Amino acid sequence: MTLRYLIEKEFKQLARNSFLPRLILLFPCMMMLIIPWAATLEIEDLRIVIIDNDHSPSSERLVHRIEASPYFKLTGLPDTYRDGLEAIEKDRADMLLEIPRGFEKEQVNGRPASALVAVNAVNGTKGGLGSSYLNQILAPAGNTSIRYLFNPHLEYKNYMVPALMTMLLVLLCGFLPALNVVGEKEAGTIEQINVTPVSRFTFILSKLLPYWLIGFIVLNLCMLLAWLVYGLTPSGNIFCIYIATIVFTFVVSGLGLVISNYSATMQQAMFVMWFCMLIFILMSGLFTPISSMPQWAQCITYANPLRYFMEIMRMVYLKGSSLTDILPQLGTLAIFATVLYLWAIVSYKKQQ
Amino acid sequence: MKQFIAFIRKEFCHILRDRRTMLILIGMPIVQIILFGFAISTEVRNVETAVLMPSSDAEVQRIVERLDASEYFHVKYIVHSPDEIDRLFKRNRIELAVVFPSDLNRLRMDAEDIQLIADATDPNLAVTRSTYANGILHTALNAIKRTGTKADASPSLIVSGKLLYNPQMKSAYNFVPGVMGLILMLICAMMTSISIVREKETGTMEVLLVSPVNPLFVILSKAVPYFVLSLINLTTILLLSVFVLQVPIAGNLFSLLSVSLLFIFVSLALGLLVSCLVRTQVAAMLVSGMVMLIPTIILSGIIFPIESMPGILQALSCLIPARWYVDLVRKLMIEGVPLAYVWHEVTVLLVMAIALIGITARKFKNRLE
Amino acid sequence: MKVIEVKGISKYYGKTKALHEVSFEIGQGELFGLIGPDGSGKSTLFRILTTLLNADTGTASVMGYDVRKEYKEIRKRIGYMPGRFSLYQDLTVEENLNFFATVFQTTVKAHYGQIKDIYEQIAPFANRRAGALSGGMKQKLALCCALVHSPEILFLDEPTTGVDPVSRKEFWQILAKLRTQGMTIVVSTPFMDEARRCNRIAFLQEGNVRGIDTPAVILDRFRNILCPPGLQRDIDNTETRTIIRVNGLVKQFGNFTAVDHISFEVKSGEIFGFLGANGAGKTTAMRILCGLSLPTGGNAEVMGFDVYTQSEEIKRRIGYMSQKFSLYEDLNVWENVRLFAGIYGVPDKEIPPRAEEMLHRIGLYESRHTLVRELPLGWKQRLAFSVAIFHRPQLVFLDEPTGGVDPATRRQFWELIYQAAHQGITVFVTTHYMDEAEYCDRISMMVDGRIRALDTPAKLKEMFNAKDMDEVFRLLAREAKRNGN
């Protein structure tokens, strides 16, 4: 079994490398510990300035109500609308509320009073959520009862953590093999392998398997951290995650190897990989929902293996989906894995 | 001077001959702008919805039609048992479910009796989606009620909203500055450092050091082509965002450009610093990738708002040049505030530039080792 | 007048001693040679003198300027070609030359006379990228780049490794011409015929200067190391089975014919020398026979297998050691042996005893847990060769296996080759050392992609009426048209 010797070699090289083992262990830890805190789109402490032109008891009540809300932080009470606008321009406030003169009188008369809200909408999410929160305070209306499934406390971290795991798997299991074969090309050792009777099939497999194991280690490390730090455990069966990861690491490291085979230098491999990853991550639904994309973009996402794994991770982790639930996604991933592996074999040339 | 030109010509040859890398460098901003501009959004649109209707009475039917007719929701499944809803959620088929009580009519069409179930894996979206759904259901219910009984009491406060700077709530307004920061950082810092370290690795640096050329010249000549490349990218991004994404440049173009030049300068200095510190290309790539790019993406407010981060991370983000630049571009380009309002950010970038160049000059070695 | 003075220079890399208390002086206009085995500290010495490294102790001055403090003055006045002179692979030949000329504040035209002889050989490839040149061609281009300006002192660290004998001779003629113009030249070399052309040489060993004197004195005093006696081979080759059969083989790259209808046969058990100038097509032909590259026309059989269709069968039965040392540097000696033994399907149980025996034989058993990266070049070459024949192939291909090492090490290497040949392994070898050519049973001389002569060394000498192989080579290589215009 030549495969055994080749794999042994890959592992020894990996272990001898002064940098990679540390990268494989430390990088996920760093990312898992920092990103969920940084990567949050929870909107709180929106800075608001209120221009109270009425100075009446009811307008003051309104000001207090806003001040008491967890979403807002009152940063000033300017006198004029112009001053308020300047506060936004100078980045001392995100939004302003102008209460008109005669606000109380109108209310007492039973007529609807009016108020002006102006939001800095450069950041769309912030602007949108901010104005809808303010609306809720200003004009509370009878609501339908809403049940938030799978994440009842609306924890943003629960949303980020499975996505983050996916990203880490992609980064480590995609970039490292991409650099591997080019590295051998640059060192000249690939030529020595090319004159040996090792088959292309075995050679590529020996390059893939170590990353499969690395992916597994990274995944377990991430899951452990998710449990210890964020108290998040998969609500579905852990074996579903394992099976999906096995297939998925094959997909990304296969992709890495294909890129590596076509590249002449490490730098080139790195950039091509970086470019692919960028598109894959953006089009995977990791940060933004796929259903919000226009039709043509949604079609593209079907060709994105990341999309399927991302779905699986969130489904199993948060929704508790079972193996039968994730079967369509898993099947697609398996097809991707086979195609990429075959492509990697074909694109690796032993003979010019 | 002749030597300097020869150096620059050589650098351009390097860049132009590696077609694949160059295509990526030029194409990356274009693809990013197109993806961000047209493909990626957090708008509520086509939310895949299931409706649980125990009885198919006409009024409920009308509400559902109303929901489906809106551009926000797409009623994909009409089911008859809660189990089915559960299964659809678990199979990732739906993002929202509306549960009507079996006797809506008898319950006087009260909104409280209708239950919305949202997939809250993405909490923000869940809130927005259910708010939208709530609104539609409300109007629909009111319309039905109005035909029967008298109209409800009107609300006590009418709020008129005004969205400053970005009235159509385009996400482009938010990400264009981010893409600018990211691309300039990538090209100036990462590419410059890699290309210098490559000369160290291949050994040509040895000859250049021994030559009568001043070593600082060698290093500076490396920065020039990437400076040009980043100007090209800057122009591409600005042109694309003005003419394709219709994001106007509200502020002064001149101050925007001068701020960009300052940022390019900072990034180049950062790249030069990295090249002084590392020995191999792989190390340069990993250092610029892991230590510079990832923090830039995460901590500079490109995707995630800095205000929502914990204090430590907010403090950390102050160290990232892109954070200040992205802020500046947002203000100068989109909000159109005058340069005088942003002297604070400009000063920070200036200080960074001076500090980085100072450190680089100190770390720069005239010898091997 | 002394232009270089070195006093008590020592340099350590961590714990390893690179140079120890080295002192010498070089006079104006001298051609000073540095010789010594790989790892003796020659390159470190060059780097200290060219102000690229600071010595740990001791002082050195070049043209009266201190290397530590007045490095700027020195750098204005010297020229340097590092051992691993690297060109810009993505620039063309012409662009590289022009660039280095400009860097050294001169033009190619101004000094064209100096480099003419060598440059004319690479001129046909002026528009080719340096990365696409053959190894020897790259070295010639590097020589041109180093000679393009006229500094007061020229430092050359093994400039002719991998260069064919004719070009080496031309190179040394240029050096001689430069010296008459008053230039001081410091050069290191593994070739003893080159060392003889120096005024004085210093022999370095393990960081110590063992002697400085005229070449005749040094070569005589250390003749065991520097001029080992030739090897005797008792040919008991009675077998006449043909192991390689090549007929009208052609390989074209675009409109350039690298290998032009060559035909020859190699008999089993032979040591077959494959000689030729840089760019004559040796490596290309060899790569076809190993199954690394497909020919454009003609046919070739190795051990009865066709190179077009049965390259994997061939690979199973041959050993290969390439120009570029290609064991895994980040694995240790034992692991490399194990890996390649495993790849060639040596049974598990046999690997440890055979590996042990082999390592004892080549004297690497003690270092079996050392990373290959840390071995001296000569040891690496011996190991690479032993690994290439570990699975007992019938045929082994060696592509310039002994580049850049001293005569004693090369002789040791050839002892290994003889041992292998004695066991019946056919050896197919390319080399630029003409003393090694004499060790071969039969030699083929390639000129411009064709085989010009093929016979035993003795017969060739007789045929060309030459006193040694060096002369034969020169006579033949002079016919080359491809390089000349």
From TrEMBL, chain A:
Task: Say if the entry is tagged with keyword Nuclease.
Answer: no
The ABC transmembrane type-2 domain covers 126-351
Q: Which organism is it from?
A: Phocaeicola intestinalis
Q: What protein name does the entry list?
A: ABC transporter permease
Provide the protein's localization: Cell membrane
What family does the Swiss-Prot or TrEMBL record give for this protein? Answer: Belongs to the ABC-2 integral membrane protein family.
Q: Which InterPro entries match?
A: ABC-2_transporter_component, ABC2_TM, ABC2_TM_bact-type
Major localisation: membrane
One Pfam family cited in the UniProt record for this chain: ABC2_membrane_3
Q: Where are the transmembrane segments?
A: 20-39, 159-182, 209-230, 236-259, 271-290, 326-346
Q: What domain of life does the UniProt record list for this protein's source? A: Bacteria
What topology does it adopt in the membrane? Multi-pass membrane protein
Keywords per UniProt: Cell membrane, Membrane, Transmembrane, Transmembrane helix, Transport
Automatic annotation (TrEMBL), chain B:
Which keywords appear in this protein's UniProt record, sorted alphabetically?
A: Cell membrane, Membrane, Transmembrane, Transmembrane helix, Transport
Residue span(s) of domain ABC transmembrane type-2: 134-367
Write down the Pfam families for this protein, in alphabetical order.
ABC2_membrane_3
Would the keyword Transmembrane helix turn up in this protein's UniProt record? yes
* TM region positions: 21-40, 175-197, 226-247, 253-278, 285-306, 341-361
> Does the entry feature the keyword Ubl conjugation, yes or no?
no
Record localization = Cell membrane
Please state which protein family the record places this protein in: Belongs to the ABC-2 integral membrane protein family.
Descriptive protein name: Transport permease protein
Q: Which organism is it from?
A: Phocaeicola intestinalis
From TrEMBL, chain C:
Source domain of life is: Bacteria
Protein's UniProt name: ABC transporter ATP-binding protein
Q: Which residues form the signal peptide?
A: none
Q: Which CDD domains match?
A: ABC_DR_subfamily_A
Domain called ABC transporter: residue spans:
4-231, 244-473
The UniProt entry, under PANTHER family, shows: ABC TRANSPORTER G FAMILY MEMBER 20 ISOFORM X1, ATP-BINDING CASSETTE, SUB-FAMILY H, MEMBER 1
Q: Which UniProt keywords apply?
A: ATP-binding, Nucleotide-binding
* An MF annotation (GO) of this entry: ATP binding
| Nucleotide-binding listed as a keyword | yes
Q: Which Pfam families match?
A: ABC_tran (PF00005)
